[in-house]
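stage 2 :: seqdesign
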């Protein structure tokens, strides 16, 4: 082992928010509340178009609204989970988990979370009316390994288009990283770190932000574009794909 190839990365330098909450019990309760609510377990929820028209009037669909909405072929409208329409429609819906927990100590085995939901820890979880299984951590990890993603990054959920959210298992405080698989070119000598565009200071902070719905939608930054991502020199210099260290 040489001095310029440390076994573990140095602390991550990121634009995280100071003053992170430390009450994990409160965080788990907030996550549990959203996970059990069919209208709030994801960033968006579907509401029948017929119910919208009956409740708010047929002209509701023509009214200007800053929130994104889309009408599906199944006769539903997809809305942000934080809207009054979603809260009203799901007010009396049964509170239950989409998937059973891995253990009784767990909030759930996915079926809730930012974007389309967190990755499942098991294979063959399938949501009602879905034609395919929920993404599993094992299958995603194998896919990422062949694609050159570092094994110290654990996939959390998709971030839209070619973007994905990962948690670093090695960097201090386990920051959550927004990664673009098209943001780096191996043939140019670049590493997966070149595809990073944003970091939340810790997994706890990332989950708190979502649990409290402090920022609209699935975005975990406050501007239209994420801020530049800055790595410490130590991490940048040791950013080569994982290798067999037994020979060093």
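stage 2 :: out
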């Amino acid at each position: 082992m040489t001095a310029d190839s440390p076994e573990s990365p140095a602390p991550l330098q990121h634009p995280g928010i100071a003053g992170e909450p430390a009450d994990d019990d409160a965080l788990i309760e907030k996550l549990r509340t959203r996970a059990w609510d069919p209208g709030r377990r994801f960033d968006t929820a579907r509401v029948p178009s017929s119910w919208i028209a009956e409740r708010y009037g047929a002209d509701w669909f023509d009214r200007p609204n800053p929130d994104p909405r889309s009408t599906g072929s199944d006769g539903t409208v997809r809305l942000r989970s934080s809207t009054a329409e979603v809260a009203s429609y799901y007010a009396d819906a049964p509170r239950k988990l989409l998937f059973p927990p891995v253990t009784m100590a767990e909030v759930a085995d996915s079926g809730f979370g930012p974007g389309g939901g967190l990755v499942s820890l098991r294979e063959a979880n399938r949501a009602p009316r879905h034609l395919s299984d929920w993404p599993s951590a094992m299958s995603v990890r194998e896919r990422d390994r062949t694609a050159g993603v570092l094994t110290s990054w654990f996939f959390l959920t998709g971030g839209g288009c070619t973007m994905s959210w990962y948690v670093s298992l090695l960097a201090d405080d386990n920051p959550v990283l927004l990664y673009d698989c098209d943001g780096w070119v191996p043939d140019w000598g670049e590493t997966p770190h070149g595809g990073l565009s944003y970091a939340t200071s810790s997994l706890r902070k990332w989950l708190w932000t979502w649990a409290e719905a402090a920022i609209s939608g699935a975005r975990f930054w406050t501007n239209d574009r994420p801020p530049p991502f800055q790595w410490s020199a130590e991490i940048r210099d040791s950013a080569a794909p994982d290798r067999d260290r037994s020979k060093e």
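stage 3 :: structure notes
- The beta strands are 44-48, 70-71, 76-80, 153-160, 163-168, 176-180, 196-200.
- DSSP finds six helices and seven strands in the chain.
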